[in-house]
Specification:
Layout (H helix, E strand, L loop, with lengths): L43 H10 L13 H9 L2 H16 L6 H31 L4 E4 L2 E4 L10 E4 L8 E13 L1 H4 L5 E2 L5 E2 L4 E13 L7 H8 L7 H31 L4 H12 L5 H19 L3 E3 L3 H8 L2 E4 L6 E12 L5 H14 L5 H9 L7 E9 L4 E7 L5 E7 L1 H4 L5 H10 L4 E8 L13 E12 L3 H10 L3 E5 L4 H10 L8 E3 L7 H10 L2 E3 L3 H13 L4 E5 L5 H6 L2 E5 L4 H6 L2 E3 L7 H39 L7 H20 L11 H30 L5 H24 L5 H19 L1 H7 L7 H27 L3
Parallel strand pairs: 9-16, 9-19, 16-18, 17-18, 19-20, 20-21
Antiparallel strand pairs: 1-2, 1-3, 3-7, 4-5, 4-6, 4-7, 8-21, 10-15, 11-12, 12-13, 13-14, 14-15
Helix pairs in contact: 2-4, 3-8, 4-9, 7-8, 7-21, 8-22, 9-21, 9-22, 10-21, 11-12, 17-18, 21-22, 21-23, 21-24, 22-24, 22-25, 23-24, 23-27, 24-25, 24-27, 25-26
């Protein structure tokens, strides 16, 4: 801490205490004197020795899965194993046409790996940009290093908002307060003195200092936790858990059905062995919704890449989905609605104070804090320090206290103690000065009070002796994109709640300038009910809340969640950490504190609040489109299982070879699903993914299976001779294709030119197979005569009508 200037004063302030400037301060005070012995840190030689011994912080902090994990996750799946075995069998017993499904799976797996590797590259590059670098002292100089370059014994500096990256012992403490709630659950900050232990994963809420690293790498207390929390993950997603649930049920249905089909085709019928094997495999393969997981991964991966281009780091992949489900977004004013910087617009001395003297006090206060916040930085810019005063004790700003302070030796043996902070916290409710401040707050200006006190800085009741000396008026810079972003949320029926530690009237004025609905009715959070249900009701009614403490922010998020809301929280300051952690989705600004970025799922590296609508839109695209394509895949699973059951029950040949269902799956599901999964989609995300998908897939699958089996039975009665089975299969394939095309046509709604073109191209491709001779031979599809083919079309038309009616009835009677 620097030496301060001495200002001559008449000592007229009442009750000014006198302190011997050279006296030693009580070491147990949380408001400690500046540290007088500064560690020089390690030398370059000592660092090199520790690196050689492996005493480095070698925990890999990744924003994405490793390449090996990506390949393993895409290749070694349950369904790939099943299909792989069936593929090998078909390569041995059947023509290559019946093994096409295996090549499709290889292509799908390759696409999944490539897309996820692209997403990994994007995430890793963004993580490097967004990584905060701790400041360490080496050879007597402070330097920023990557976390992986910290070695045992390093002296690491700390300031407000900094995260403790390794375990250590406090070497210097200047009013150092550490929040360990993310590790211990204890909400109150812990005052740290020299010699105290600090744990990785905690963060600084006030003051500063330095600590010596005593445990690094995997030995650090929170190393494993931090690595796991920072890793690209596919968990905690309703979409993915829903798909896992569906696949579990599919497996249960598939196994007994497949066993029955194997027995039916291999042991009951007298058909050739190889043909029976081929038709058995043809019945099992389409039961597996193999492309569904792939498309979900691809959709998420492409979402990551798209957001990466907007400088948005998605630290947890399901956050894209989560933000799309949000119906309440809580915004911190400073740094979110307003830019970080401020400007001093006016200084109003009070109670006859001398303006020159006040300017000097403000300059001294600015110099007393080595890590000033935005408000104090504006004061530093406006009022330079006078070097004759000496700071003998400092109290850094705390979001919980809402003021900072310092005790100065003025050079003539006199001392003065000052507080700078929120006027309505420092003054009693009936103080006339507050009336003067209301007018300024209503203009959206931020007002700080400079007050002289007679008590000790560490006394919790020190504000009782506050004597108003001056008002410092600050103007906040509104973000140019904030109004449009708030308007977007209003259009999307997402309620925006501004939650700030500033004066409620001032916050309300800023929100009103930005057009936030309900901004004219501001609420002072100190008057909110403590009981959660009552608080939830109050939060539903209000839109702007001021004088919110960090603990209250956390409580407000919990109250909103208890009311059934999905809550996103944005912020950039250390006072937002607890609320960000508890919110369903935490969004941090790239310029935010280390602790804030560590707990957030999404980091806006460009510090642009206007990026949020793009994240919401990307999430809605993923959820809406995956719901669409899941309906296609699961309709196929349902009709495949039912067809197999009908074949087993009737004891006849399975109607299809693998090549037929590969063709149908490609044209009615695989190719169109890929385009539909990546298409724009602005539908608001809805819950109950499994129920919404299955209520369409089950009736659609039942109708498709019934229509196909009816055509097959009629064809068996109609055709005879050695080539009858081929003709029967062709007629059944035509019916199944047409019903499946109608399912695709429904899923593709609402129609746009490209969706109509997509359905038309798929239909045209099937028609091409039916009319081109070599394609007829390749896929063993040849329509014989005119009666049965037209009957197949007629049955398909009835099936299409039944699908349409069934889905409309489902919408009315079983709304999701």
């Amino acid at each position: 801490m620097t030496q301060r200037a001495k200002i001559e004063t008449d000592g007229s302030e009442p009750g000014r205490p006198t302190i011997d400037a050279g006296a030693e301060l009580d070491p147990v005070h949380p408001a400690q004197a500046p540290v007088r012995h500064r560690s020089a840190g390690l030398t370059a030689t000592e660092v090199a020795e520790r690196v050689a011994r492996g005493e480095v912080n070698d925990v890999p902090v990744r924003s994405s899965r490793s390449t090996a994990d990506i390949v393993r996750g895409n290749v070694f799946t349950r369904f790939n194993a099943i299909i792989g075995v069936l593929w090998v069998i078909m390569l041995v017993v059947a023509p290559i046409q019946d093994s096409l499904f295996g090549f499709v799976i290889i292509a799908n797996t390759g696409i999944g790996i490539i897309q996820e590797l692209r997403a990994k590259k994007t995430l890793d590059s963004l993580a490097v940009i967004g990584e905060t670098k701790p400041t360490v002292r080496r050879d007597g100089a402070a330097t920023e290093v990557h976390m992986s370059e910290i070695v045992l014994g390093d002296c690491i500096e700390l300031g407000p908002g900094d995260k403790v990256v390794v375990d250590g012992e406090v070497a210097e403490a200047d009013s150092l307060e550490i929040d360990e709630s993310l590790l211990t659950g204890e909400a109150d900050p812990v005052v740290k003195k020299r010699g105290d232990q600090v744990m990785s994963g905690s963060f600084v809420v006030a003051g500063g200092g330095a600590f010596t690293a005593t445990r690094v790498g995997r030995e650090a207390y929170a190393a494993q936790l931090a690595e796991e929390a920072s890793r690209f993950t596919l968990v905690r997603s309703e979409l993915r858990s829903g798909i896992s649930t569906i696949l579990k049920y599919v497996t249960w249905m598939m196994v007994p059905t497949a066993i029955g089909l194997v027995i039916s085709q291999l042991f009951v019928k007298d058909a050739a062995f190889k043909d029976s094997v081929a038709r058995t495999v043809g019945g099992i393969v389409p039961m597996i919704p193999e492309g569904l997981v792939l498309l979900t991964s691809v959709a998420f991966a492409i979402g990551v890449i798209r957001l990466g281009r907007r400088q948005c780091l998605v630290q947890e992949l399901p956050a894209i989905e989560g933000l799309a489900r949000v119906d309440v977004v809580c915004l911190d004013k400073t740094g979110t609605l307003t830019e970080g910087g401020m400007d001093v617009t006016e200084l109003r001395p009070l109670n006859g104070s001398d303006e020159t003297y006040v300017r000097t006090v403000l300059g001294a206060l600015g110099e007393s804090d080595p890590r000033p916040n935005a408000s104090l930085q504006a004061i530093i810019d406006a009022y330079p320090d006078n070097e004759d005063w000496r700071c003998v004790r400092a109290l850094p700003f705390s979001s919980a206290r809402k003021y900072s302070g310092a005790t100065f030796s003025e050079g003539d043996g006199r001392t003065s103690t000052w507080l700078l902070g929120a006027p309505d916290v420092l003054l009693p409710d009936d103080d006339p000065v507050l009336g003067e401040i209301d007018g300024l707050n209503q203009q959206g200006l931020r007002v700080l009070l400079l007050a002289n006190v007679t008590g000790e800085l560490d006394d919790p009741d020190v504000t009782a002796t506050a004597h108003a000396t001056a008002l410092v008026v600050l103007e906040q810079r509104l973000r140019p994109d904030a109004a449009d972003t708030l308007a977007y949320f209003a259009e999307q029926n997402v309620a925006a709640k501004v939650i700030s530690g500033d004066n409620a009237v001032s916050v309300g004025a800023v929100a009103e300038k930005l057009g936030l609905p309900g901004a004219e009715h501001t609420v002072d959070a100190r008057r909110l009910p403590a009981e959660r249900n009552e608080m939830s009701k109050a939060l539903d009614k209000g839109a702007v809340f001021g004088r919110v403490t960090p603990q209250q922010k956390r409580g407000m998020v919990g109250a909103l969640q208890s009311g059934g809301h999905t809550v996103a929280m944005t912020g950039d300051g250390v006072n937002d950490v607890l609320a960000l952690k508890d919110a369903d989705i935490g969004v941090s600004m790239g310029s935010g504190s280390e602790a804030t970025k560590a707990v957030a799922q999404i980091v806006l590296l460009n510090n642009s609040f206007s990026t949020l609508p793009a994240v919401v839109a990307e999430g809605r695209r993923v959820i809406g489109n995956i719901t669409r394509v899941a309906t296609l895949f699961l309709t196929k699973t349902v009709y495949s299982v039912l067809l197999a059951i009908l074949v087993v029950c009737t004891g006849i040949e399975y109607p299809f070879l693998p090549r037929h269902l590969t063709l149908l799956s490609t044209l009615t599901i695989g190719a169109p699903a890929f385009f539909l999964a990546l298409a724009p989609n602005k539908e608001r995300a809805k819950p109950h993914f499994v129920r919404r998908v299955m209520r369409y897939a089950i009736p659609g699958g039942i109708v498709a299976a019934s229509a196909t089996f009816a055509t097959y039975l009629l064809a068996r009665a109609h055709y005879s001779g050695p080539d009858a089975l081929s003709a029967e299969t062709s007629a059944a394939t035509l019916t199944l294709f047409l019903v499946s095309m109608w399912v695709l046509a429904i899923v593709a709604r609402p129609y746009t030119w490209w969706r109509i073109a997509l359905v038309a191209v798929m239909g045209g491709a099937f028609l091409l197979v039916l009319v081109v001779p070599w394609l007829q031979d390749f896929f063993a599809l040849r329509l014989v005569g005119t009666t049965m083919p037209w009957l197949a079309v007629g049955i398909a038309a009835v099936g299409a009508v039944l699908v349409e009616v069934a889905w409309r009835l489902v919408d009315r009677r079983f709304p999701a």
